[in-house]
Specification:
nine-stranded mixed sheet; 374 residues; binds octanoyl-coenzyme A; 32% helix; single chain; globular; two-stranded antiparallel ribbon; Peroxisomal Thiolase, Chain A, domain 1; alpha+beta
Length: 374
């Protein structure tokens, strides 16, 4: 008989520190003033553009973000540094991303009523890994005492949903009975805190889910994954050029194009219709229409994107209850946003309710799961 694959538990790690818009803007504006004073003669001679001021009001209106979590606050607001200071760890210490991942994974295991002995595979899926190898997933696997195998995968904003797709397929194929999919999104090191257009966008977090054969599920809240659907379409509109080649290209490894940068307006215009069409097509595979969906666990990049996508789908504004927003407090957490929304708001679903979990962003990449609560 065909296996029914389920999500049986999720976990969320939130860093101890937060930065409000007001704190972020005060530091950025002080940096701007300091820089403009330093280069006042070049600016006066028209040889250099002054650094413009940011505004907390603009950030909230343009994005819906009011605050974000940050793994290491020291340094990020220091106008002479403008990047977090994360102490280097030795090869024999648990790495930063593995630490975040293990915390979220333990919570997901507890929610799923599973122990490490029940898990056959670990997928660490996120926008960046802090090193190339050994895989963070294998480190997490060792730390939790899981047998089987683990691997890392990077799909930017859609890493979490694409990781869930892989887990779903492994279980369908009979290669694993239960898989941990973990998203340690330590993104603050890639934020350009000196760039007014993007200094406010991101926050750090880790999420995890247990995906397993539904026949073995024993948790109170279990969600059948009816199917998964993924699409990618190449775009340079969201890009980071950081990579191992910087050792040999002689490019400046600290230049702005090595960090996250984007054409935000273009992204907004191109991704919203793609996401709405993707979701409509995915629902149609199950003879559902958008009004059949009780909860929309959408990617959390920008509140205006989510409002527009829901309007395209439903022909009206979605209520806060239908399409929960977490980006106000978490900001854009790369691929983890839709999983945070799921983790914090899934308990309100009733038996037989249908939900969509969907990510969209860099690549471009869009990934979705149609879920039904047992
Ligand atoms: N304060 C004050 N004014 C500002 C600021 C600021 N901070 N920033 C921009 N302005 C100004 C601009 O300069 C511009 O001025 P002018 O009109 O004089 O030119 C004006 O405000 C309007 O600027 P924009 O057109 O840029 O403003 P928008 O209304 O388009 O809002 C957004 C900007 C919020 C970026 C918006 O375009 C957006 O959200 N687009 C969607 C893009 C998106 O979601 N990107 C993220 C996807 S990436 C992802 O999800 C994961 C990637 C992998 C992780 C990376 C981790 C680091």
């Amino acid at each position: 008989m065909d296996k029914q694959v389920v999500i049986s538990g999720s976990g969320l790690f939130t860093p101890a520190h937060t930065i409000t818009n007001e704190e972020l803007v005060a530091s950025y504006n002080a940096y701007a003033d300091h820089t403009n004073e330093r280069f006042q003669s070049e600016i006066a001679a028209g040889e250099r553009e002054p650094v413009p001021h940011s505004s907390a009001e603009f950030i909230e209106k343009a994005s819906g973000i009011t605050s974000r979590y940050i793994y290491a606050k020291t340094g990020a607001l220091d106008i002479h540094r403008m990047r977090p200071l994360i102490p280097e760890r030795g090869d024999d210490e648990l790495s930063h991303q593995a630490e975040m991942a293990v915390d979220a994974a333990k919570k997901a295991l507890a929610a799923a009523h599973k122990t490490p002995a029940d898990i056959d595979a670990v997928i660490v899926a996120c926008a960046y890994t802090e090193r190339s190898y050994p895989a963070i997933a294998i480190e997490v696997q060792a730390e939790l005492g899981i047998e089987g195998f683990g691997f890392d995968m990077l799909v930017a904003c859609s890493a979490a949903t694409f990781g869930m797709h892989r887990a779903y397929e492994m279980i369908k194929a009979g290669n694993a009975k239960a898989v941990l999919v973990i998203n340690p999104e330590l993104v603050s090191p890639q934020v350009n805190y000196t760039d007014r257009d993007s200094h406010f966008i991101f926050g750090d977090v880790a999420t995890a889910v247990v995906i397993e054969d539904g026949a073995n599920a024993s948790a109170p809240d279990v969600y059948d994954i009816l199917s998964t659907h993924a699409v990618t379409s190449y775009s340079n509109n969201i890009r980071s050029n950081f990579g191992y080649l910087s050792h040999v290209t002689d490019a400046n490894p600290y230049s702005a194009d090595m960090l996250f940068h984007q054409a935000g307006r273009k992204v907004f215009k191109e991704v919203c219709p793609m996401a709405a069409e993707h979701i409509t097509a995915h629902l149609a595979r199950h003879d559902y229409v958008p009004s059949d969906v009780s909860k929309w666990f959408l990617h959390q990049a920008n509140i205006n994107m989510n409002t527009l996508i829901c309007k395209k789908l439903l022909g009206r504004m979605a209520t806060e209850d239908e399409a929960p927003i977490v980006l106000n407090k978490f900001a854009n957490t790369a691929s983890a946003g839709s999983v945070i929304a799921f983790n914090l708001h899934q308990s309100k679903l009733q038996s037989q309710d249908v939900a969509i979990l969907c990510s969209f962003g860099a690549g471009y990449s869009i990934g979705s799961l149609v879920l039904k609560k047992r």
